[in-house]
Structures are given as C-alpha cells and as structure tokens.
C-alpha cells in the first residue's frame, strides 16, 4: 500500500541558528555595498580604483573557497561557521576603523568577503543535509532572510552618514550582531555532515531542467552545456553586483540627491530581491525552469530600463525594485542549471561555481567602474543589459536540446511517496 506524505520543513533550533547567522551575513554584504560610494568620496578615489574593493572581495572569496573543504574536515562545520562570522566582523570593523587608508579598506573588504563565504557556504550545506527533501525549501528561506535583513542595511548606512557618527558607525553592526548571537545561541550546534553521506549514492535532481541527464556519472565530461551554464552564471552574478555596488552612484547622478540619501537606492533593489525570492519557490512549482529563468532575465532588463531612463527618485526606486525582482531568481536558477548539466559531478561543479561567482563579483563592478571613469556612470551602466543579454543567449543556446516542458506539478502533487 502506498501512502502520500507531504514534504515538511521542520525549523529546529539549529535551523534558526543558521537562518540568523545568514541574516548577520547580509548586514556585512549590503553594508559594504551601500558604503562604497561614501568610501570613494572620503578617499578621493576614481571609480575604477573604488571598484578594486569588489575585486578584493572576489579574491577573498576564492582563497577561502579553496580552503573550505580542508578546513571543514579539520575543525568541523560548527567551528567553521563561527570562525567565518568572527572574520567577517573583523573585516568590516577594519574598514570602519581606517576609512581613509586605501590598503586597509581593500584588506577589510577582502577579509570580510572571504570569511563571510565560509559562513554562507557551510550554512547552506548544513541546511541541505539537515532537512533532506526539504533542503531546497530551507535554503530558499535562508536566502529570503538574507535579503529581508538586507533591505534595512542601506537605510542604516544612510542615517549614520547624515548623523554626527558618520557612515562608518553602520559598519559596526555585523560585529554587534555576531556578539549578541553568540551570547544567546552559541550553545546551539550547527549540524555536522554524516561521514556516510559523502560516500552515499547521489539521488537524481528533481529541480533540473527537463531533458537534462542528472544521473550520477563521475566519469562524465563537463562539456559544452556546462561551459554555457558557467557563462550564464558569471553574467548573472556580475550583473547583480554591478547593481549592488554602483546603482547608488547612478541614482545620485540622475536624481540630484546626495550620496548619503542615494545609499537607500540599494534598499529598493534588495526589497525587489526579497519579493522575488519569496515568490520564486511558488512559481518554480508551476513554470518550467527555462521559461521562468527567461522571464526573470526579461524582468530584470525591464527594471534596468526604467531605472536607467529615469531622473525622478520615485521612478528610479521603482526601476531598481523591479530589477531586484528579476535578479532574485538569477543566481539560484543559474546555479541549479550548472549542477544539472554536470553529469552527476556536483561536487566538482559546486567548486567551479564558487570560483565563477567570486571572479564575476570582482570583475563585473571593476569593469563598470573603469568604464565610468572614461565615459560616465550612465553610459557605463549599459554593461548591465549587455550581461543580461549574454546570459539570456547562453541560456537559450544551452537549453535548445532539452525536452519541452511548460509546467511544473502543482503544489498539491509535490509529495514524497513511501511504502
């Protein structure tokens, strides 16, 4: 006899710990993003040199990403997550303590990014192991927590910038929250991955694009589809961080608002991402992955157009929010596609994805900053739709041979079956 049992997500104390740790992670990421235009003014930097802070973030992420497997094996997930949070706090504190000294701020951005990546990747892995079939739902909720927390961070930076304390005071927030979280939940353990899990069989992916072979195959070659998926992931991440690091500058130039007030532009983008992440799981049950991904790219491009053309704050905020709604689905869907076409070599694909993401984070904002120095920020922001267009082309070419499927099963049919 076959019973139908819904997949349930049980949020225990360790789950809430990871959610909150990733919420603190958001205060670092969106805080340093919103602070970059103000930091550039304080240091008197060109836009290209200011973009090196994004490059430093990328280098930090690559270095710690390469070290993560060995570090986890040596000290365990629980220690890795808290070590990452401590290092992330130290990096942001360094930026706040030496805001006019370029080598210190570059180092601070790099340390914060690298150590924060330890917390993020380890936290996501623990959620996936902890919740099994409900792992994707837990990861989606964790990402939603990140962007919801991130909405308020640019406002904190903006308010601090207009106060006697200065914008640097806002960068102490990750340190304060890390200490508070350690005091109240430090005894809750981040789950360790069972040793048997590494050697266990790899189940087929249920969220892959239709027609893509997802069966295990360690001997499989990472071929053309994988390379195209990697290009799509690169373009999506680069476009997202161009918004994160440079939207406030274009917002200020086009609307005439002060850089301190314009820092809130990142909040509009983040609010759109929060809405997109919250709706994304529901939409993915009803729309084929390629169709949904294509729609998300087009929504982001439309939002960019509204933002790029506008000189009124209200329309600029609206354009950024709409861009955020589309961008919200880019990274998770691009990563899912990359894993789906890896021929079962998901560990290798995940490592490559980490490197692609870090390189895109560093290269995209730096190129945009260099273009801004030569042609102005508005012209330079044409890089964003170029990246979105390249991602769309890569997606459509890479999925041309997939079996057609235009719908997902309804939520009522998304069940686990057991005898």
Put the structure in a nutshell.
Residues 7-403 form the Major facilitator superfamily (MFS) profile domain. This protein has 419 residues and is an all-alpha fold.
Q: How is the biggest beta sheet arranged?
A: 2 strands, antiparallel
Q: Kindly, what is the distance between the CA atoms of the first and last residues, rounded to a whole number of angstroms?
A: 6 Å
Into which percentage range does the β-strand content fall?
under 5%
Per CATH, the superfamily of the largest domain is MFS general substrate transporter like domains
**Main β-sheet, spatial strand arrangement:** 1-2
Tell me, briefly, the overall form: globular
Mind telling me the C-alpha Rg?
21 Å
What can you see in these coordinates?
The protein is mostly helical and 419 residues long. It folds into two domains: 10-190, Growth Hormone, Chain: A (Up-down Bundle); 205-398, Up-down Bundle (Growth Hormone, Chain: A). It has helices at 13-43, 47-50, 52-75, 77-97, 102-131, 135-161, 173-185, 195-199, 224-255, 259-262, 265-284, 289-309, 313-327, 330-340, 346-375, 377-380, 383-398, and strands at 3-6, 415-418. A two-stranded antiparallel ribbon has the order 1-2. Helix 3 (52-75) crosses helix 5 (102-131). The chain starts with a strand and ends with a strand. Residues 1-5, 194-220 and 403-419 have low confidence and may be disordered.
